[in-house]
Design goal:
Radius of gyration: 18 Å
Strand order of the largest sheet: 2-1-8-3-4-5-6-7
Strand content: 5-15%
Number of helices: 9
Order of helices and strands: HEHEHEHEHEHHHEEHE
Helix content: 40-55%
Structural class: alpha/beta
Number of strands: 8
Length: 308
């Protein structure tokens, strides 16, 4: 829905997805509904650092502009995958961290530009243990903890990125979409439980279109540049707990992330997932042309029932 809204505003949109089949199907649907043929698919698996490098190389060689980088991909469970690293942290934080690093020169060249990181209210439950940051995750309890930790990492990353980008013309924002009716949490539950929870999800959760509004606000709203590095929910800045505004922890996470992304000595050597490991479909959106060309349309407002 985020990509559709941007395409309807006339943006050129690159959908960077792990699944070629689902990515190309999404491109077809978005082109058809928006009437904009400037929507393309490119392969990206955020669990593989090699894939991130390959995507960045292909993107930079084929796309002259980058005005918006929206980190929309994420997983909440490892599924049946058995990796020797923290898969949830890799997909939700380390992969986007590396991708941002690789694309920053293009973002700076096209400033003013923006980076939007999909966060979550789950960051409030996060507690980063730097001694075990990349340890494998086993079982649903550890997965819930790892997901919350990865969302805290998203908020701290955005905070430190804003500090490092000050004066560059590139701003960044952490966006909480709200509780959205998607496959993020239901994908791996047993079939009988899925049947039980699906109707409830339709009743109490936000539609994907409603969930797209805060990321779109952070991507397009004029005048929020002074709020770079902040956390947004329901299209407004929201205060975060002390754990999410700890500048020392943000800097420490940045340095740890450089190692995990292979950007400094002692970095992780786990650049590829095991062959055949299942993955949730991922989506990451890079958009252009210039922001001013597709900012000047009003946002659909969230109803009171959607403001949670």
């Amino acid at each position: 829905m985020t990509a559709l809204e941007l395409a309807q505003r006339g943006a050129r949109v690159v959908l960077a997805c792990r699944s070629k089949e689902k990515g190309e199907a999404a491109v077809y649907d978005i082109r058809k509904e928006s009437g904009n043929n400037e929507v393309i698919f490119m392969m990206l698996d955020l669990s593989s650092l090699t894939s991130v490098h390959s995507f960045a190389t292909a993107f930079l060689s084929s796309e002259p502009r980058l005005d918006l980088l929206i980190h929309n991909a994420g997983i909440s469970s490892c599924g049946k995958a058995k990796e020797n690293f923290n898969l949830i942290l890799r997909v939700n934080h380390v992969g986007p961290f590396l991708l941002t690093h690789l694309l920053l020169p293009r973002l700076k060249a096209n400033a003013p530009s923006r980076v939007v990181v999909m966060a979550s209210a789950a960051h409030r439950r996060g507690r980063l243990d730097f001694s075990r940051l990349d340890c494998p995750v086993w079982g649903w309890q550890q997965e819930l903890r790892a997901y919350a930790d990865s969302k805290l990492a998203n908020v701290l990353f955005t905070r430190e990125l804003a500090t490092q980008l000050e004066g560059s013309g590139v701003t960044c924002y952490a966006a909480h979409p709200g509780p959205v009716n998607s496959e993020l949490f239901l994908r791996h539950v047993p079939g009988w439980l899925h049947l039980l929870l699906s109707p409830l999800a339709w009743l109490v959760l936000r539609t994907p279109r409603g969930g797209a509004q805060t990321p779109l606000h952070c991507a397009l709203q004029e005048g929020i540049e002074p709020l770079s590095g902040r956390y947004f929910a329901n299209c407004h800045v929201e205060e975060v707990p002390t754990t999410a505004r700890d500048d020392r922890a943000a800097r420490r996470l940045w340095e740890a992330s450089e190692k995990l992304a292979g950007l400094s000595k002692g970095g992780s050597q786990n650049t590829n997932p095991k062959p055949g490991s299942p993955r949730n479909p991922l989506a990451q959106i890079a958009t252009s042309p210039a922001l001013s060309r597709f900012r000047n349309l009003s946002f659909p407002l969230l109803s009171e029932g959607q403001r949670t």
